[in-house]
Design goal:
By secondary structure, chain A is mostly helical. Chain A has 2 domains: about 35-95, Cytochrome C biogenesis protein (Helicase, Ruva Protein, domain 3), CATH 1.10.8.640; about 105-165, no CATH class. Helices cover about 65% and strands about 0% of the residues of chain A. In chain A, helix 2 crosses helix 3 and helix 5 crosses helix 6 (about 135-145). Chain A starts with a helix and ends in a 6-residue tail after the last helix. The chains are: A mainly alpha, B alpha+beta. Chains A and B meet through helix 1, helix 5, helix 6 and helix 7 of A and helix 13, helix 14, helix 15, strand 1 and helix 16 of B.
């Protein structure tokens, strides 16, 4: 009986937590300017200040005001994000887009970092596995695991470190 | 004074060249044991003394330039282009690094200072320091050649001497700009020293790991300067550029960040070499790469290869730097190939889940981050080469690619110290990880409950999602670090009978390096929390007439006046804004717009009110030409002050890590 109650309590707790997560995830205020803000951060100001359109506010900027008006007009005109970005790119050149596109050679910009990271991660894991399973690695592990091979002075020092810091020493 | 400065630079070049040649000959004689007419030890000592004299000569040149700035000697082109009579004294001093030639002179001077300290401390290890000193002399020869032949700071103005100069770039007329560049340069230049030690130790096949211990202190000091320099630059960008952010992924910002990443990787992996005799080749290449990246950063800044807001430093000396980088790389590869047998590891990793492998993965992530930034910085050039048109690689690219990598690194920051050396058992994982994992999930639920959701208006919001992950990971990592402190301090408290605070202090004193490192990690966590706040930035913009109001967050800004002022350097317009919260007046803010008299360039001076929750950031954007009404932009930037506080914690941690650990009483007695 006690166990059944306990199980029921935990099930209800998990359900409540899941509900809380679902409710919280669904929260979020509707913002009329969110598209403008989002697109403004995907476009560059063309005056040469090297700032995002949505953030360019330097004194005397000759371009950002006009670009912002064009962006507002395009959003009000019901154009999709893709169409707006294409329109800006056609008018001002590819450098108006704050990041490379995801087609053609530009795609390489996005793929390369993850490819390099994945390859390096895989390479490292394989290398460590090879070290661990190699005869030399096994022999080393056996040697270090056998306390008899450690000299008493080192062993006393390690014990002192364990005692004083509650861990295996060094950082 | 121009002639004095020019001669000082020529003498410095001659002395550096002698230092390089005599040092190289002496070390060659010493290593081969060949008989010679001159004692190689004496020859090496004359080389060292030439290095010290060279420092005096470069100091004289730097003094000559500073003197000329203060004396308004506009017969010197550099002074004419970067100063004017009305420029305040502190900014006259900063004119030294405001242009190409001056900043190269600063570089050479700082290298001279580092070299001077190194040569004074040569008795630590005469042979190794002789190698390092000679290599530093080689680097110095390059910079002095550039200063003497490609970018002379004392070049005379062609024509009659003008009455006044062009003045300093308005962007640089800000207090941080008096500190930020020298600090950054101390970081950049400082990496020459560990590079010189690493290359020297490799050439001489230095036995043991003592060179690593010597190098570590230099690297940590350099890393501290670079960290400080980067953050001062961020604060300058935040307070001066007026866009409400502190990091724009500008190529020059990226250039300073890349050596910081590799330097950080080196500071971690070097522990593996010290403790386990592992990763020797890796460490050597990390320090080689860090030095090469400092040169690459300089090349990017000055050669105009990529467009940048730091355009004031562009010139045609790129080919000099390219040639030097190729030579340095060739020397590094040649030396490594020749001596690689000397770098064989003493041990190998025993487990995928261990402290050793966490260092390896930490290095992997740091280097991947470095690659991503390098890739993003150079991709526009590559794109132009391949498809004929340039593309922009801006913040959206880095936010998508670099931020996840940064969060993974934060995760490793928490996991690494909890793993024991050699191998980990399931039991120890359970014991060490239970609290951090609980803290992580509690934070997730609290964040979700207060509205930090990955959804905004029904659409997945990357910024909010990253913020949620960052807050959760920060809580986990902070708990992990604090539990490490508590565990150690608990043992000491039990042994000594002291309270936990005193025990924590004693614990830190006993292993300053380890616990200083943990404090640096706490600083990183605080900074990440501050960075994550950017996901919730808010802004409002309005034309404000007299007594008009602008609402943002809990604040109401009421315009109570606009006024003008001027001095010899600039004229200024500023708004007087009373700030109310809950209907009660709290303080007044005065955002400005300045126009500099000489250059006619406008510049914003942002007004910032900073509290731990957020910064109220107000910009005077100018006046609407149609209505003649001033335009005020207000931003509420959450948690920004945490970033600057995190830096303070990082600096504190680094300083603690630099202090030698206190030996236990028994050991001290044994040594006497």
């Amino acid at each position: 009986m006690k166990t059944a109650l306990r199980v029921s309590f935990w099930i209800k707790t998990v359900q409540a937590a899941a509900l809380a997560v679902a409710v919280c995830f669904s929260l979020g205020a509707t913002d009329a300017g969110s598209r403008f803000n989002d697109l403004g951060h995907r476009l560059m100001c063309t005056c040469g200040c090297a700032q995002l359109l949505g953030e360019c506010n330097h004194v005397g900027c000759t371009e950002s005001g006009r670009e912002r008006k064009e962006l507002s007009a395009a959003i009000a005109g019901g154009e999709s994000d893709k169409e707006i970005l294409a329109m800006f790119s056609a008018k001002y050149g590819a450098t108006v887009l704050a990041a490379p596109t995801t087609h053609g050679f530009d795609l390489v910009a996005w793929i390369a970092p993850f490819a390099v990271f994945g390859a390096a991660l895989l390479g490292t894991i394989l290398l460590v596995r090879r070290w661990v399973t190699s005869p030399a690695g096994k022999a080393q592990a056996a040697r270090l695991a056998n306390p008899a091979t450690l000299d008493p002075e080192t062993e006393a020092l390690r014990e002192k470190i364990r005692r004083e810091t509650g861990s295996d020493g060094g950082f | 004074m121009a002639a004095f400065g020019s001669f000082a630079l020529l003498i410095a070049l001659a002395l550096a060249a002698y230092n390089l040649l005599a040092g190289a000959v002496a070390l060659r004689l010493l290593s081969t044991g060949q008989p010679s007419a001159v004692s190689p030890e004496r020859l090496a000592d004359t080389a060292r003394r030439a290095g010290i004299a060279g420092f005096v000569a470069i100091s004289a040149a730097a003094f000559a330039l500073i003197w000329s700035v203060f004396a308004n000697d506009f017969s010197i082109t550099y002074i004419m282009e970067h100063s004017n009579r009305a420029l305040p004294g502190a900014y006259k001093f900063s004119a030294l690094w405001s242009g190409q030639e001056g900043s190269l002179l600063l570089w050479a001077w700082l290298l001279g200072i580092y070299g001077f300290v190194l040569r004074l401390r040569h008795k630590t290890d005469v042979r190794l320091f002789a190698y390092a000193g000679t290599i530093l002399a080689g680097i110095q020869v390059f910079f002095l050649m550039v200063l003497n032949f490609a970018a002379p700071p004392f070049a005379l103005f062609n024509g009659p001497m003008p009455d006044d100069g062009n003045g300093l770039n308005p962007l640089l007329q800000y207090p941080e700009m008096v500190i930020h560049p020298p600090m950054l340069y101390l970081g950049y230049v400082g990496f020459s020293v560990p590079f010189a030690f690493a290359l020297g130790a490799l050439i001489m096949r230095y036995p043991g790991e003592k060179w690593i211990k010597i190098t570590r202190v230099w690297t940590l000091v350099t890393w501290l300067f670079l960290t400080g320099g980067i953050f001062l630059g961020m604060h300058w960008a935040y307070a001066v550029l007026g866009w409400g952010g502190y990091w724009g992924w500008d190529p020059v910002e990226n250039a300073s960040f890349m050596p910081w990443l590799t330097g950080t990787a080196f500071l971690h992996s070097v522990m593996m070499q010290e403790k386990k005799g592992m990763m020797k080749s890796w460490n050597v290449w990390l320090i080689f790469s860090t030095f090469l990246l400092t040169l690459l950063g300089t090349l990017l800044t000055r050669a105009g290869l990529v467009s940048s807001v730091h355009a004031f430093a562009q010139s045609s000396i790129g080919s000099w730097f390219t040639a030097f980088m190729v030579i340095v790389l060739a020397i590094c590869i040649f030396t490594y190939v020749l001596q690689r047998k000397h770098l064989k590891s003493d041990h190998q990793l025993e487990s995928l889940v261990s402290r050793e492998s966490s260092f390896l993965f930490n290095n992997l992530v740091l280097l991947t981050a470095c690659f991503v930034i390098l890739w993003g910085t150079l991709f526009p050039i590559l794109s132009e080469f391949v498809q004929g048109n340039k593309v922009t690689v801006g913040a959206p690219f880095y936010n998508r690619v670099a931020v996840p990598i940064g969060l993974f690194l934060l995760f490793l920051t928490g996991v690494g110290p909890l793993l024991p050396w050699r191998a980990t058992s399931l039991k120890s994982i359970k014991r060490n990880f239970v609290l951090p994992v609980i803290a992580l999930w509690v934070t997730v639920f609290v964040c979700l409950a207060v509205g930090v959701t990955p959804w905004k208006a029904g659409v997945f919001d990357t910024g909010n999602f990253y913020a949620l992950v960052a807050f959760a990971l920060s809580a986990g990592v902070m708990t992990a670090i604090l539990s490490e402190f508590l565990r150690g301090a608990g043992v000491i408290a039990k042994q000594t009978g002291r309270n936990l605070f005193v025990a924590t202090w004693l614990l830190t004193r006993r292993n300053t390096r380890r616990y200083g490192g943990y404090i640096i990690h706490i600083g990183v966590v605080v900074i990440v929390i501050g960075l994550a706040g950017a996901a919730f930035n808010r802004s409002a913009e309005s034309e404000l007439g007299l007594h008009d109001k602008l609402n943002i967050g809990p604040y109401t800004l009421e315009c109570t006046g606009f006024t003008q002022d001027s001095n010899l350097n600039y004229s200024t317009e500023y708004a007087l804004l009373d700030v109310y919260k809950g209907g009660v007046k709290q303080f007044q803010m005065t955002p400005e717009k300045r126009v500099y008299q000489i250059s006619g360039q406008p510049q914003t001076m942002v007004a910032i009110h900073s509290v731990p929750e957020w910064d109220l950031y107000v910009v005077y954007e100018g006046t609407n030409p149609d209505t003649n009404q001033p335009i005020i932009k207000a931003m509420l930037n959450p948690l920004v002050s945490w970033i600057w506080f995190g830096l303070v914690v990082m600096v504190l941690g680094t300083l603690i890590a630099l202090v030698p650990s206190q030996k236990p009483a028994a050991q001290r007695g044994g040594n006497q």
